[in-house]
Structures are given as C-alpha cells and as structure tokens.
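Box 3.1. Reading complex inputs
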Amino acid sequence: MKKNIVVLAGDGIGPEITGAAVEVLRRVAEKYGHEFAFDYKDMGGCAIDRFGVPLPGETVDACKKADGVLLGAVGGPKWDAQPADNRPEKGLLGIRSALGLYANLRPAVIYPELADASPLKPSVLERGVDVMVVRELIGGIYFGPRAVSEDGQSAYDTEVYSVGEVRRIAKVAFDLAMTRRKKVTSVDKANVLLSSRLWRRTVTEVARDYPEVELNHIYVDNAAMQLVRDPSQFDVLLCPNMFGDILSDEASQITGSIGMLPSSSLGTCKAGLFEPIHGSAPDIAGQDIANPIATVLAAAMMLDNMELHDEARAVEKAVGGVIAAGYRTPDMGAGRRVGCREMGRLIADAI
Ligand code: IPM
Ligand code: MG
C-alpha cells in the first residue's frame, strides 16, 4: 500500500525522536511490502525561524492531503520572547484546529519491567494501570474568547462548550469504552462552572445510547487525587481540553516515564496527528539520549489509523521485546544503556 506521511519533526529532541520512528516505519514498509513517502514540513519554532510564523500555510495544506501526520514536539526557550500569538505552541494548536482534530487519545499503561520507575507504591501498581484519557482538543478555554485589557492590568480566557462539541467527544469515549472495560469516567467541575454543567448533562444524554457502559462523573480535583490513590479504578477518562491536558501528564508519570507514551488526535480529516505526550526537552536536545519509544508507539497508532493493524502490532511487539531485553534510555532507569538512535535501530531490527 502506498501512504503519504507528513513528518513535523519540530524543535528540541523532535528531529531525533521522529528520526528513530521513521527508521522503524521504513523497516515496516520493507517487511510488509508498502511504500511510505515521508514529506518533512516545518511547524513550531523551526517554522518561526524559517518563515516567521509557527504554522505556514504549506504545512497545513500538506497535512490535509496526507494519510497521516507524525509529530515530534515543539517549543523551547529560544522562542520565549515571541509574542503570545506567535509562539511555537500556537503552531500545534493551529494544526489541531485546522485539521478538526477534536479527539485526543492518550493511553497510559504500565510496562511491568518499568514499574520501578513509577512514583507509586508496588501495592498500588499491582492492581494495574490501563487508563485511556480522551481529551477534547479544539474547544474549551484553549479556544474561547480572550483578551488583555488596554492597560495590561487584567486578562481573561473563556471556557466555552457547545452541546455538539461535547456530544462528539463523548461518543468517541463511549465507543472506545465498548472495546475496553466498558467504563467511562467524565471529568468536570460542575459544582462551580456552568460549562461543566452543560458538559455533564450532555455526556449523560450520550450515555443513554450505550446501556452497557457504566458512566461516572467526577470533579477534576477529585480525579487528580484518585489517579494517584488508585489508578486501577479508571478505564476511559473523558475530559474537557484543559483538564485533559493536566490529568494526562499526571497519568503518564504514574507509568514510570513520560518518554513512553504516545497519543493520537483524530477528527474530521482523514489524516490523524500522532505524537508523543512529552515535550521538546530542549535541555537534552542534540545529545542522542532522548527516548524515542513514545514516538515509535505514536507511529504504531498511525498505522492502526491507516488500517495497517498487523503492522501496528509488530511495532508494539518490537518495542516490548527491546524493553524485555533490558535496553534503556536514561529516563527509563537502570539497564543496558542505549541512546536515541540505537534504541530506534534496535526496534527496527526487531520488526
Ligand atoms: C500537550 C501540550 C500542549 C497542550 C501545549 C504544548 C500547547 O501541553 O499536547 O499536552 O497544552 O495541549
Ligand atoms: Mg500537555
């Protein structure tokens, strides 16, 4: 099969980790007889350097036509002085919005071999961690009306959700729950926010179409606490944009290393966007010590989205094998120490 993949390597460790993932994808293509074309485009700080803006039009056009978009990470101190509406992160928010990617899926699973690296006690981890954070990605306070007053003495951002926006993301959560443990926990702050009351009401309505799925509502502050007290109680965690941003970082750390977790963003465009959960880690960029596994697993999610399921499972299996053989980048704790490039090569060789 011929597939056109846009690679947005981005900033910091982005080029290194996407480099490793592309090597793995090339091996998949070879082994399974596919033709993957990789089209590299700029987004984030690198795009500001080249074009003056974080999201050039040609990048958006290429992504819209692609079969999948693989993203590294964006941002870094180099662009701290940029005005708020021209920061690297604006590129990321812009591409999510331009592609209509309203559903962000962030699985947090624990690899037993890496349990040592988790900050939670073994007695808590024993109950298992397999949480799928479903985060609404192109609405809420990230995209609501905002302004700074003329004198610079006040500023506001607005949390806005429509029934339609909540409905479509809730459906994604319930559909996923049907393929998992049939439990949705919806996160809100309905004791304070009107937008959360609408969220809760709408999710409850959608739940009626899924009688087999158990639905619970939880306030976001309680969710943050419950996630570290007993993560095994969660299956699908359905969140508005900002609560999902915060809780997915928390969920990822429970698993030991944020360097392991991929995410996919899906929506109205054929191409989804696939990226690691972690950021651009400018402090370790260019040193060949970053962990490429999250990006490699993101590539596996992209293969799934292209209906290449055997290929996706082969990538996951290769990652599992390399971890079981004891290979570790520095963030993964003690083991056979390898760098980013070597980790990529080991996984590719295991395909
Ligand atoms: C994430 C990141 C982004 C977000 C930033 C970089 C804009 O934290 O993908 O979780 O807040 O969505
Ligand atoms: Mg985040």
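In summary: The radius of gyration is 20 Å.
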